[in-house]
Amino acid sequence: xxxxxxxxxxxxxxxxxxxxxxxxxxxxxxxxxxxxxxxxxxxxxxxxxxxxxxxxxxxxxxxxxxxxxxxxxxxxxxxxxxxxxxxxxxxxxxxxxxxxxxxxxxxxxxxxxxxxxxxxxxxxxxxxxxxxxxxxxxxxxxxxxxxxxxxxxxxxxxxxxxxxxxxxxxxxxxxxxxxxxxxxxxxxxxxxxxxxxx
Length: 198
Hints:
Blueprint: H1 3-6, E1 13-15, H2 25-37, E2 44-46, H3 47-50, H4 65-75, E3 80-85, H5 93-100, E4 110-116, H6 124-136, E5 140-141, E6 147-148, H7 165-190
Parallel strand pairs: 1-2, 1-3, 3-4, 4-5, 4-6
Helix pairs in contact: 2-7
């Protein structure tokens, strides 16, 4: 393995819930923690903190600091972890609006898509929908996901995780993501892109 191949990966976590009383903030921090425990650099990209306008609402906003900062963070990433709640069997409007501001930042990069819900499925329908959208941007969603089910009962009052299985599941999925991240980083830098006839 070359020095470059051993260089730390950068894998941010995008938190896609903007509700005031959201249940996904602690799981998002858990994902950041597990990415860092696996040896990669991470940061939380919190769509609520960014307060992005809906895509198309304000043409000037695309050049504003929140959107530019998000695009730069995703552009320098080697892979991305997405965490979305499930609303009406799909992912949040905040996630869709954020994605619509993106162009080549996700191209040929692996994506770990995670879901969260109060029910037992853990946002599986939102995850499957989001993977389809990421493919359209030439992202590479991996098969593995983490489904944070029964979200209201994941943590105790002091913030302790009551379900250690989620740490194990996150570690397993992140290990897969890192394999893809290293492989695709090498590919983006060393393999010529296919040329399509026009």
